[in-house]
Write a structure and sequence with these properties.
The protein is of the alpha+beta class. Helices cover 30% and strands 20% of the residues. Strand 3, helix 5 and strand 4 form a beta-alpha-beta unit. The chain is globular and about 50 Å long.
């Protein structure tokens, strides 16, 4: 009787496995918590369970959600994967650049730091490539270090030395985009046409400026996707991801003083201010 039960169970397992099959890469893009999926739901959860706002887990999780929302304004489609077994990857997803058939795969580490980023954080980001989930281990993956505080010279030098395609984005604790730079390896991986400047408008108050993107000298406004939409629509492979429409402003407008021509990449750091991030380090 026991042998007959085991034989029947073994015949049923493959069927169940096929029915609920999910690829490893797709699972990596699913939220790692059932209690929250964005900043609003996390804050509600923290209040419900009495999680103190000065706890490390609160500060870190809230910052990861704020960083994900801030990067969404630049067109990143990222899902928070941070947790006890994240292997150094806090955000995972894609970034659809103009003139590219498939989205660029992205993995990110988020650092809510009191004293700003250090070169060792760049080395930790390099190590995250080793523990990345399936689908984010081969070439063409962009590693992003998101941190509070602008990049020091040591951080810029560490990025320049790295053979991995790396970027650094400064996001404040309140979700403000303050700095965006990347190394020559990232440029070779597809960021050659990208440049960044500060966005000003008549309604902008001092200290509330945001970053804007240009692609080959033309202002680029990436399509933004909410965290809920990203959770529902992300797929197992970049080629399966629906491409969002990007919006370009009229090219007849004269380039602003803060625009940067991407025609001739440089391997040296080239900064005009602490808030304007340029092509390469």
């Amino acid at each position: 009787m026991r042998r007959a039960i085991r034989r029947r169970a073994s015949r049923l397992r493959p069927t169940a496995s096929r029915r609920f099959h999910t690829t490893t890469a797709h699972r990596a893009l699913l939220p790692q918590s059932r209690d929250h999926h964005d900043l609003a739901s996390f804050l509600a959860y923290a209040q419900r369970v009495g999680l103190a706002t000065d706890r490390t887990v609160f500060v870190g999780t809230a910052y990861e959600y704020r960083a994900s929302a801030a990067l969404a304004r630049l067109g990143f489609r990222l899902t928070r994967t941070g947790g006890a077994s994240d292997l150094g990857v806090d955000l995972l997803g894609h970034w659809q650049l103009p003139d590219t058939a498939a989205p660029t795969r992205v993995l990110a580490q988020c650092k809510a730091l009191r004293q700003g980023p250090r070169p060792q954080h760049v080395r930790e980001l390099e190590g995250a490539f080793v523990g990345a989930p399936a689908g984010w281990r081969d070439s063409g993956v962009l590693g992003v270090l998101v941190a509070t505080g602008t990049a020091t010279k040591g951080v810029r030098d560490a990025l320049a030395r790295s053979v991995w395609p790396l970027a650094f984005i400064c996001v404040s604790l309140h979700g403000k985009l303050e700095q965006f730079l990347w190394n020559s390896a990232a440029g070779d991986a597809g960021l050659t046409g990208l440049a960044v400047s500060v966005k000003y408008s008549p309604m902008t108050t001092v200290g509330h400026e945001d970053l804007s993107l240009t692609w080959r000298g033309i202002p680029w406004e990436p399509a933004q996707v909410s965290s809920t939409d990203m959770t529902q629509s992300d797929c197992s492979h970049p080629s399966d991801v629906a491409t969002e429409t990007s919006h370009f402003s009229c090219p007849s407008e004269a380039p602003t003083e803060n625009s940067h021509s991407p025609d001739k990449p440089s391997t040296k750091a080239c900064f005009e201010s602490q808030t304007v991030l340029v092509k390469y380090v």
